[in-house]
Design a protein that fits this description.
heterotrimer, A alpha+beta (140), B alpha/beta (277), C alpha/beta (142), A: 140 residues, alpha+beta, Heat Shock Protein 90, C: 142 residues, alpha/beta, Transcription Regulator spoIIAA, five-stranded mixed beta sheet, 5 strands
């Protein structure tokens, strides 16, 4: 993540335990993206990315949490979403992030695809120690 | 600039206000050229001088932040009145010039002059920064307006729309075009789109990628998108950059593209009258 | 009880209009319901209207591909209609090209595509019944 001062103006924390929670993550992300004055296309991209990552958290991470923040830096508004799980972790990150890679259940597309949709992407994972993914999308 | 130097500068200004202020005003007034009246100038410089010269330690003293804010406002106001940034800065730096006679007299030491000089230069640079920031905001606003005006989507036929792109294409502009075009397809129910780049001077990798993405997005939506007007130089650039156009349909001219769209829509163009000889 | 997406029958085709922000479970249920209904009705086509969807992520994308695949095996064509521009742009960025799904811009086109296919199928079955040389231009309806 960049080091420039980022102010958090609002934040929402959600548990990801079931299907319905993925929908809630989408809605929360959409809500804050609107407040951050992102364009329609920018909103669609970040909500789609959040949906992918929330689903990953549920399906591959055994459930976890999402924190969605409305951020601001240098007069620009943005949306930051962090997904945390205490699941098995990702053994080969480079492989998982390779374009089009799939374990057969869509993990690959979710990660590499999400990365393309956002401006900043941070992935921390440890085998047996869980995964944390943070994405950030700025308005123009 | 060290605090004590600033303090010293301000003290000098405070001490010699009666001699310095009128000279300063005279020097600044010589460059007005009718954009400001002398009274306005006097009021402006007097306010500034008071802020600069106030005793840094007293309870009524203006802090440096306040001083900076006054200078910033002065700069913005001058920009609005049509002064160039050089002129605005010169108005500030002439304060130093006004102190030179005092040094010659021996009333003010050279060291004191150095402090005042540094202080004044700092403020002059501030006027520049303020000016630039304000201009950048104006340019950004104008760019946005221009963007909206200059990318119209035109209906060529029932179900066929076109975007004639002209001028330089940058990433931001191409994205706006892309979004407009795709939305127009939905709004008009047109299944054919033509992006004509005859009027585009040069295409770089980013722009070519955006064009490609537009074509693929249109296809995803159920429409066909053709790129026409590719000049030889642009074709060479695209190949040189290694961009894969794949199965994207391209035509040399808008006319060729239109005929193709018409055919695909089930129309045939026939000559009704014999060609005049 | 899980909410279900309603499936309408219009002539030879089934129409599904996805209105909600689909939960994954509901999407899976839709696939099953559609497969069943295609068999029950002998439908030749499935029209999926996604004009209300603000987001199409890889899960929905896979669902659409699945439905197309299942329908094909059951001898029905799937046509997806109403993709929003922002969605299309995002899918391109995501790298999800939905190559095995036919997409069209309007509902009219969707039904036209299915009708063509029905005619084609009708013609083919005539060829089977009567033998090739007895099929003339009158057999093809406009």
């Amino acid at each position: 993540m960049t080091d420039a001062t980022i102010d958090v103006e609002a934040s929402e924390r959600l548990e990801i335990k079931a299907d319905a929670d993925v929908v809630k993550v989408r809605q929360a992300t959409r809500n804050l993206a609107t407040k951050a004055a992102l364009s329609l296309v920018e909103q669609t991209k970040v909500v789609t990315a959040a949906s992918e990552l929330a689903r990953n958290t549920l399906v591959h991470g055994g459930g976890g949490t999402a924190r969605i923040d409305l951020v601001r830096s240098n007069q620009r508004g943005g949306v930051r979403a962090t997904f945390t799980d205490h699941g098995p972790g990702i053994p080969d990150v480079n492989l998982a992030l390779t374009e089009g890679y799939t374990t057969g259940t869509g993990l690959g597309l979710g990660l590499s695809g999400s990365r393309r949709l956002v401006d900043e992407f941070d992935l921390r994972t440890e085998v047996g120690g869980g995964t944390e993914v943070t994405i950030l999308k700025w308005g123009r | 600039m060290a605090d004590d130097e600033v303090g010293r500068a301000r003290k000098v200004l405070a001490t010699h206000q009666e001699q310095l202020l009128p000279v300063w005003i005279d020097m600044a007034a010589s460059r007005l050229r009718g954009r400001m009246t002398r009274q306005e100038l006097e009021a402006e410089l007097r306010t500034l001088y008071t802020a600069l010269a106030s005793d840094a330690t007293g309870p009524d003293a203006n802090t440096l932040d306040e001083v900076r804010s006054i200078v910033g406002e002065l700069s913005r106001s001058r920009a609005r009145q049509g002064f160039s940034p050089r002129e605005t800065a010169a108005a500030i730096t002439s304060l130093r010039d006004s102190a030179v006679p005092l040094v010659r007299q021996g009333t003010v030491s050279v060291d004191d002059l150095m402090c005042v000089s540094k202080f004044v230069d700092d403020l002059a640079l501030l006027t520049f920064e303020t000016y630039v920031t304000a201009r950048e905001r104006v340019i950004a606003d104008q760019s946005e307006q221009l963007l909206e005006l200059s990318t119209p989507v035109v209906k060529l036929w029932e179900g066929v729309v076109a975007v004639p792109l002209v001028g330089t294409l940058d990433s931001a502009r191409t994205q706006v075009v892309m979004e407009n075009l795709l939305q127009t397809l939905v709004d008009t129910g047109s299944e054919h789109a033509i992006i004509d780049i005859t009027g585009v001077a040069a295409v770089d990798t980013q722009v070519a990628q955006h064009l490609l993405k537009t074509v693929v997005a249109a296809r995803l939506m159920g429409a066909q998108c053709i790129v026409s007007g590719i000049r030889p130089q642009i074709a060479q650039t695209i190949v040189a950059l290694g961009i894969e156009f794949g199965d994207i349909i391209t035509k040399a001219t808008l006319a060729d593209a239109l005929i193709l769209c018409l055919r695909n829509s089930g129309f045939e163009v026939t000559r009704r009258l014999p060609r005049a000889n | 009880m899980v909410d279900r997406v309603p499936i309408l029958r219009i002539g030879d085709a089934l129409l599904v209009s996805i209105q909600l922000d689909l939960q994954d479970q509901i999407a899976v249920q839709l696939q099953e319901d559609l497969a069943q209904k295609i068999v029950d009705t002998g439908a030749r086509g499935v029209v999926i209207d996604i004009s209300a969807l603000e987001i199409v992520d890889s899960f929905i994308g896979r669902m659409l591909s699945s439905i197309a695949g299942i329908a094909k095996i059951l001898d029905a064509e799937t046509v997806v209609v109403g993709m929003r521009p922002a969605v299309a742009i995002t899918l391109v960025e995501l790298g999800l090209y939905l190559n095995d799904v036919r997409t069209v811009l309007t509902v009219e086109r969707a039904f036209a595509v299915i009708a063509e296919r029905s005619e084609g199928a009708a013609l083919l079955s005539k060829l089977d019944d009567q033998g090739h040389d007895e099929v003339g231009p009158d057999d093809v309806s406009t």
